[in-house]
Design goal:
The structure is a homodimer. The first copy, chain A, is about 30% helix and about 20% strand. By secondary structure, the first copy, chain A, is an alpha/beta fold. In chain A, helix 1 crosses helix 10. The two termini of chain A are about 35 Å apart.
Chain lengths: ~350, ~350
């Protein structure tokens, strides 16, 4: 185990080093080029109808000066759907579309911008010719959310302004955040755009911890509609990416797990044996109170996939010379260098024309 | 009053008839052309910090198999910001950007698609060379929402699947909706894509009726960042469009009110005297229980603007030969014909290069 781990790391370093040499970060130059789209739009997918009964009728004036309308809370509700926005480049280079799944307490905004106003990974992959489907999971953003406790079980969780700073390895753990930006204690060499942190927390939305089954069902509906595809997923979506791929192994051509905070069903790891998997981890993991364990969970899970004959690459960015990345590496100042590593891996897997 | 109203209608018919003749609907042909963008991205704007205190610390396992984290609900929260997604065409024709503000219980999805999968007004105006800023208002979609009753006063309102059908003049009023699509009673000649209604309700999100001040503050922050501009607004955003323009009259070059369900401050109507205003109304208003009054509210408000020397055009679509439009005209089957009317009006106001 010890040795296989080391070998795996060495292989990853070699892979990524060759990748880094062959594809310099062209982000800045590309940002001056237009993006030409064959199509763009959005849709909702999945969900179910739920019924509420036995509650009193209310009268609601929706807009001041408007005319009151009766609002009967009893009835049928559309719940647990998800939202997908798509961009299809005029010249497609990816052999299949790329689905991007955000992490917990966040939405598809994760990929479409950085909090200091640079381009995100959505634009990066679009510029490289990928058809991109960027989404809001069940209960987040444009997916909407449902009554609780009637329909969603449990209560929503809200994050303080301090929480992501201390938990996403932007700061160096508990107590590193201050309302005063000058007093925040970021990891030395952090690539997170510190000047954008107050913008970043505006992206945070409430989340539940009790809607996983509904979220998985909606993601499966997305896969059934859009795929075959590559799925790139982050953090909380670790469990969603792996589990949905286990449910639809024929439709998933590769999995890119960006600091997966959850895994698939270990007993069914063999379902992933024909799907190339890339795990990407940032910096400062050893110093963190939670990430060494979560990273190890990921490694243990993909060991099972490998034992079943699967193909897994693991890239710890610091080991290939890319330092300072936080949990939000798609927003970090070197976000395009990280995207280069991912795209080069997709190319190695013959997923680029 | 009676006569001035009539004259106003006649003028609107003449305006719109000339408009319709000069700009045939090119939507279908245009949909086959690529969309070339100089830039695309998103940002959040506005909002404030709010504090919660005196509540117990919780332990939350965010992802099954993850490591439990302490979650202290006490602290500082970022609340009442809004979300803006922007698309800048390579060849800009609008003299200023176009801001699109959605109605109640909805998000920017209103403009980016139709529930039967056609292009929405976002694509239309982008194809015509407008820089478009499409947004989610405070508390909706990717803007996020805040704890209630601690921060938001009041409770959220949820809409049944029946509610928009009966209230948005898709069906012919109370009792027109059925869970069985075959039994739904649409207005005869309705342009709403009936086959897409079940998709449309997936776009509906919870809303509050107590967050108007916060919403206006955030929209003002958007205007301060993006404008000078044209603002196109729908339904609930009637009050937001007019009130924000009253707060920033120098930054708003035109207002397009699509079935405004609310108005500005009548006592300050003169603030709008230098801003061209277009009111657009669809069909079936006379048969509706609420829209005759809401339309009259709009007319009374703009009469005050006109009395102060303002320029207002009123287009009742049926009077210019465009029939069957519901409250969701940007999604109706003839949505591009309606957009043509709006764009021609913008051209008349010298807002297109």
């Amino acid at each position: 185990m010890e040795r296989s781990m080391r070998l795996k790391s060495v292989a990853a370093v070699m892979l990524a080093a060759s990748v880094a040499a062959s594809t310099p970060n062209q982000g800045t130059a590309e940002e001056n080029q237009p993006i030409t789209l064959r199509a763009m739009g959005s849709f909702h997918v999945g969900g179910r109808l739920a019924t509420i009964s036995g509650q009193p009728v209310k009268e609601v004036t929706f807009t001041p000066g408007g005319v009151p309308a009766k609002l009967d809370p009893n009835g049928t509700y559309q719940v647990e759907q998800m939202y997908v926005q798509y961009f299809i480049p005029q010249n497609v280079s990816g052999t299949v579309p790329l689905l991007m799944w955000h992490g917990g307490g966040l939405t598809g905004v994760t990929y479409e911008t950085t909090p200091d106003g640079r381009e995100g990974w959505l634009n990066y992959f679009l510029r490289r010719g990928w058809s991109v489907y960027n989404s809001d999971a069940v209960e987040r953003g444009r997916a909407g959310w449902a009554q609780y406790p009637e329909i969603f079980k449990g209560e929503p969780v809200f994050l303080t302004t301090a929480n992501p700073f201390e938990r996403f390895r932007i700061g160096d753990g508990a107590g590193s955040y201050s309302d005063d930006p000058a007093k925040r204690r970021a990891h030395p060499g952090s690539q997170f755009p510190a000047e954008g942190y107050d913008n970043f927390v505006k992206q945070v939305v409430p989340r539940w911890t009790t809607t996983d089954d509904a979220t998985i069902a909606a993601y499966i509906a997305e896969v059934d509609r859009v795929c075959p595809c590559v799925i790139l997923f982050h953090s909380q979506a670790g469990q969603f990416g792996f589990k949905v791929a286990q449910a639809r192994p024929d439709k998933v051509k590769a999995l890119v797990a960006v600091e997966a905070a959850g895994i698939g069903d270990p007993a069914n790891a063999a379902a992933l044996k024909d799907i190339p998997i890339l795990l990407v981890f940032g910096d400062f993991i050893d110093q963190d109170s939670r990430w060494p364990k979560m990273r190890q969970n990921d490694l243990d899970f993909v060991d099972r996939v490998k034992a079943a004959g699967g193909s897994v690459d693991i890239i710890d960015l610091p080991k290939i010379g890319i330092h300072g990345n936080t949990h939000m590496m798609m927003m970090d100042k070197n976000n395009m260098a990280v995207a280069d590593v991912i795209e080069a891996w997709l190319k190695q897997k013959n997923l680029i024309r």
